[in-house]
Amino acid sequence: MPYFLALILVLLAGCATSNPSHSPAVLAYSYDPDASLALNVARAAGIAGISDLPYEEYAALVEANPELSSAVSGEVRDVSRANLPVAAAAARISYVSPPTGLSPGAGSVLSAISWLSAGEMVPARETWFIAWLPEGKTLQDLEAEFLDALFRISPLSEQPHERTVLDADSSDPRPYYHTPDCARVRWARMDVFEADCSLGMTFATYWLDPEERSYLRASSFPFPEPRPAPQFLGGGGERAHGPVLFGIRTRGVGELAELGDEGILQLSANLPAWVYIYYARAFTRDFTRFTPVVLNSGEAHYFIGAPTRD
Q1: What is the three-class DSSP state of 148?
Q2: Is the dihedral angle over the CA atoms 268, 52, 44, 210 positive or is it negative?
Q3: Global pTM?
Q4: Whole-number pLDDT of residue 92
Q5: Does the record's keyword annotation contain Signal (predicted)?
Q6: Cα 256 to chain center, whole Å?
Q7: What is the tens place of the pLDDT at every residue in 259-285?
Q8: What is the pLDDT of residue 249?
Q9: How many angstroms separate the CA atoms of 235 and 238, rounded?
Q10: Element (H, E) at 126
Q11: Which is the most buried residue in 10, 90, 124, 132, by most CB within 10 A?
């Protein structure tokens, strides 16, 4: 279908695969206290080709460029709850508004802080939404939570609005927010609301393994059985369905394709804490690639390792 080619999200084009499963690396993952939160999230999701910047190199950059210290804006949220390395908290530098007045050569520091260790590894160079759904949650719950979060930062939320689920009786229902007088139209062989008075989901795609080029729709996705959640989700013995890598294509006022870096950070602040964004390619239509960062609950986490232990 031609409109699939227009996916603004992370669509590694393909067709449905017959026996998708989590990779051995995902099934064998265990929390590494010497790695950054960002790297732990990437490893837990099966995203290969990324590595931490050694903490000592980061510290040397800060020592040589004291301007960087002013960019550190406090601890990562819930450090004690998540049992994260202190280095991950110290390294949370704003990538949205980089500090100005850096010394010569220091302008590349923010790019150096997150870096790819394996060149053009495809999964590590794409953006991924990653969820560990609490036990009992479904993909429909995930899709609803995602659209609700996007709606809360959309200009449409400031207007009178209603919420409608299109194709509610199908295997792939599509939630929409819209103004009361917004008209339904046909678009890409589906019923939608006019784009200038609505915000909705046109379809969602899912992966178990980021190395897999194929994607699945919710109706054919083998939803993972619950198993112990990664330690960075709390470490309290909770069970979760995941990791589930997903993309949701949206249409309308404040759609995903309109969000810049600040908007993506705001989106992460409105998503549940069990959703992470591995952010390496822009959602805007220029598809700009950059060094990766992991976003969660409105916080940016960089790939910086923990200090070497004595």
Answers
A1: helix
A2: positive
A3: 0.80
A4: 36
A5: yes
A6: 12
A7: 988 889 899 999 999 999 998 887 876
A8: 94
A9: 7
A10: none
A11: 132
Encode pLDDT of 12-29 as tens digits: 333 444 456 899 999 999
Q: Are 9 and 249 in contact (CB under 8 A)?
A: yes
State the pLDDT at residue 9. Answer: 39
* Residue numbers of the chain with a pLDDT score lower than 70: 1-20, 65-121, 285-287, 290, 310
Determine the pLDDT at residue 51. 84
Question: What are 200's two structure tokens?
Answer: 């909705």
**Using an 8 Å Cβ cutoff, are 280 and 42 in contact?**
no
Stretch (H or E) spanning 134: strand 128-134
Q: Is residue 78 part of a domain?
A: yes
Does residue 29 fall inside a structural domain?
no
pLDDT at 6: 36
How many angstroms separate the CA atoms of 159 and 168, rounded? 24
**b/e string for 102-117 if b means 16 or more Cβ within 10 A?**
beeebeebbeebbebe
Q: Which two tokens stand for residue 83?
A: 């049992």
**Structural domain includes residue 45:** yes
Cα–Cα dist 47/116, whole Å: 11
CA–CA gap between residue 223 and residue 99 (Å, rounded)? 43
Dihedral (Cα; 168, 169, 171, 172), 10-degree rounding: -20
What DSSP character marks residue 158? G
Count of domains forming the chain: 1
Residue 205 forms part of a structural domain = yes
**Cβ atoms of residues 268 and 296 within 8 Å:** yes
Burial track 2-33 (b if 16+ CB lie within 10 A, e otherwise): eeeeebbbbbbeeeebeebebbeebeebebbe
Token pair for 152: 């809360």
